[in-house]
């Protein structure tokens, strides 16, 4: 009798993959519009509008606004869709994924090199203020758009401190490797930095410290993504590569287009690799789903 009752119980209909993709696209478009509006709102609130930069690259300012923010919206939507947390915790996750990667970590390096770049301090402060406002608005709206099933953040294996240390060293290696074998191969880059006098010791110390911060950010994000180790690594790689590098599409008066585009390839490729490695180093040996559940299609369409 109990078996008959169980067989006759209604079964919740599974979400159709195409419908799931369509809904995700609509949410992504909404988040894209939100990021653009939030950036404009942040610029208005801060009261600091930078001078119009020269059009020296493949995109105008407005084209860069749509393309860059579109790329950020896609990876943040992917992060939200795969999130283990929701509500205020999801808003915080999106804030960290947006602000820390696109502004916070970049400001540390900008301050280090500012004696040579000579960006006005008011512009740097305004950059940070606008980043906080835009990321906060985006995080709140993203948490309202996406309502993933809540789970406890994934546990991490033992020895996490040494994993963070290893990731700090790996970050420095990737930074130097990509800088020399990608960016430094550009004559425009070599000419641009020819007047800079940077000591290797302080530079390595800075990047080691940034590497440890990158490792902490990686730990915060990867433990809040559902799915297999492979699927989490893909999300991390895409998030890190796009959010950090795509802003180099914007024209600006401080860095000519050939230099920006060389850095875009350098930063995008090194951060993509770092995202993959960070997920593997931090989560290898921990509980994870079978690899069969990690196809790119399931990253969006499924809830694995």
Distance between the termini: 33 Å
Biggest β-sheet: count, sense, barrel? none
- Could you tell me the strand content as a percent range? under 5%
User: What is the number of independent domains?
Assistant: 1
Radius of gyration: 21 Å
**Structural category:** mainly alpha
C-alpha geometry: globular
Describe this protein's structure.
- With 304 residues, the protein is mainly alpha-helical.
- It contains twelve helices and no strands.
- α3 runs antiparallel to α10 and α4 runs antiparallel to α6 (121-145).
- It is globular, with a radius of gyration of 21 Å.
- The relative contact order is 0.15.
List keywords for this structure.
disordered C terminus, 304 residues, 12 helices, globular, mainly alpha
Mind sketching the topology for me?
Layout: H1 2-8, H2 17-46, H3 61-81, H4 88-112, H5 114-117, H6 121-145, H7 160-181, H8 187-192, H9 200-222, H10 229-245, H11 257-283, H12 296-301
Quickly describe the structure.
The protein has helices at 2-8, 17-46, 61-81, 88-112, 114-117, 121-145, 160-181, 187-192, 200-222, 229-245, 257-283, 296-301.
